[in-house]
């Protein structure tokens, strides 16, 4: 049965890395959310200040519920910061706020990977919802072409994960440039890098999981063809 086939082993290292990344991002965020930055700017202050000076006064900064729910919405042109980022002046809060503004700066500049990612997002959403239905129907009714369509559809979600990587790394480097000396001291900037690196690891892990799943699907369809 496909549930027990050995290709499942492919997923295990990726899932271990993903679990580690989740643990790491939470523990690093919590650690540096307890450390106040010396200059005392809140996440909101930092976001507002970088946006205003970059000619993005019309981009709003809003508080949103949830933990690590911070994001930039390119459709509404809003930087949404979780409550523990919006109101806090911790090193973690300031780092996350500057990272999200990094996405607004990418948008302003027409940074190609972000444009491509925004275009791909709705397609990838539909793809990730429909892929397992296709595969399952393909297996139940023994229709190999459905499995092959599932593989093509799943490739879109893998591509989406891959395109996310430069977008995230670039937003973090933009954040560090802004934070250095202006909002954080040199030593604090070192800690900010740790927070943003931990966040980046979750995207790397998600990409590895997606690639491992794609490989598994390809192996699965190959086995069934034999
Ligand atoms: Zn980001």
Overview of this structure, please?
The chain has 226 residues and is mainly α. It has one domain. The chain contains seven helices and three strands. The chain has a three-stranded mixed sheet with strand order 1-3-2. Helix 2 runs parallel beside helix 4. The radius of gyration is 20 Å and the shape is elongated. Zinc ion binds next to helix 4 and helix 6.
Q: N-to-C SSE series?
A: HHEEEHHHHH
Helical stretch count? 7
Can you tell me the overall shape? elongated
Strand share of the residues? 5-15%
Report, as a whole number of angstroms, the end-to-end distance: 15 Å
Please name the defining characteristics of this protein:
mainly alpha; 3 strands; elongated; 226 residues
SSE diagram, text form:
Blueprint: H1 11-33, H2 43-53, E1 60-64, E2 71-73, E3 78-82, H3 83-86, H4 91-109, H5 112-140, H6 144-179, H7 186-225
Parallel strand pairs: 1-3
Antiparallel strand pairs: 2-3
Helix pairs in contact: 1-7, 2-4, 4-6, 4-7, 5-6, 6-7
Please give a quick description of this structure.
The chain has seven helices and three strands, in the order ααβββααααα. The chain has helices spanning 11-33, 43-53, 83-86, 91-109, 112-140, 144-179, 186-225; strands at 60-64, 71-73, 78-82. Strand 2 and strand 3 form a beta hairpin.
């Amino acid at each position: 049965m496909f549930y027990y086939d050995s290709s499942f082993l492919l997923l295990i290292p990726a899932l271990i890395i993903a679990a580690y990344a989740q643990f790491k991002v939470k523990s690093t965020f919590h650690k540096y959310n307890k450390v106040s930055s010396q200059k005392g700017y809140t996440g909101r202050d930092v976001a507002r200040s970088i946006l205003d000076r970059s000619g993005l006064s019309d981009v709003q900064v809003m508080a949103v519920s949830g933990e690590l729910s911070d994001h930039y919405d390119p459709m509404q042109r809003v930087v949404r910061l979780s409550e523990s980022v919006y109101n806090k002046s911790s090193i973690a809060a300031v780092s996350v706020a500057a990272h999200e503004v990094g996405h607004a700066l990418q948008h302003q500049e027409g940074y190609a990977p972000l444009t491509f990612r925004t275009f791909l997002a709705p397609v990838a959403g539909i793809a990730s919802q429909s892929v397992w239905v296709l595969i399952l129907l393909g297996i139940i009714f023994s229709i190999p072409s459905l499995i092959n369509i599932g593989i093509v559809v799943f490739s879109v979600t893998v591509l989406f994960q891959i395109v996310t990587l430069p977008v995230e790394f670039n937003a973090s480097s933009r954040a560090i440039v802004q934070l250095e000396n202006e909002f954080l001291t040199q030593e604090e900037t070192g800690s900010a890098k740790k927070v943003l690196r931990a966040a980046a690891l979750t995207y790397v892990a998600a990409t590895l999981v997606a690639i491992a799943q794609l490989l598994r699907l390809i192996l699965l369809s190959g086995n069934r063809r034999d």
